[in-house]
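note to self: dont lose this again. the chain is below, predicted strucutre after it. 312 aa total, dont forget to put it in the shared folder this time
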Amino acid sequence: MVMKATLTPLLRWFDASVPQEGQSDDRRIDWLRAVPFIGMHVACLAVIWVGWSPFAVAVGVALYAVRLFAITGFYHRYFSHRSFKTSRATQAVFAVIGAASVQRGPLWWAAHHRQHHNRADRSGDAHSPHRDGFLWSHVGWFLSRANFVLHGERVRDLMKYPELRFLDRFDVLVPALLATGLFATGAALERWVPGLGVDGGQLLVWGFVVSTVALYHATFTINSLAHRFGKRRYATRDQSRNNFWLALLTFGEGWHNNHHYFPSSARQGFYWWEIDITWYGLKLLEGLGIVWDLRDIPRTRREAGHLPEYAA
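---
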């Protein structure tokens, strides 16, 4: 029995379909399953030994940007809110890139985010800083046993795609392939292009470990900080805020009060001065014919909801 209790969470590292034991409302941290997440942070210290090179850092920055766009544009605005349309092939490609962010699969991500909008800052919201504090809303909630399970009933429109179900079930696969590919690429470059000053370990640490941890905490700030710091333009039923600095860090997600006011919009920076890099990227994809039917907020709706004290 002890061995089974130990093996079950270990198996869930590799196969998220392994049944969760215990109560579905168990808020305790599943420490055994949290080991890889903690290990990623510890592994950042490896920069002391592998050093750095402009190439390795550039790869890390590029992978931060590409994977962040997959999270903000597709995990969030597409899978969670269906704010535009695209082909099944494009849906699959960006689901894979999003999965490389090590934030689990698109179904799990979208299911929890839809619940967040249904119950924002109230009972049933998995990550409200007002109810549960900063640490829980930032990292604790997704390490808990209660929030490990995929609630497929919330994403029935997405559950019909076997490729998305596969990515959710084996959510460690894409990150493992990315990490392996980066190490192999770095080793090859060390041998064939030594002038770059990069090797396998260095490209793995900067391109995957450091880049992923930075991506983690950029994404998590929307849960933990964007409901506490910033301005409220709209009187939503939650405590969402618009925050310029978070918007820069997260490619537009920091216009969070805007988003909670009109969640179905693919655009979260409602005014030209509200920088929304994800929106610009989606418009580029629209121009290329890769996505279409981008939803914007009607001007009348945008202006009608202003709080009297807010100077837009």
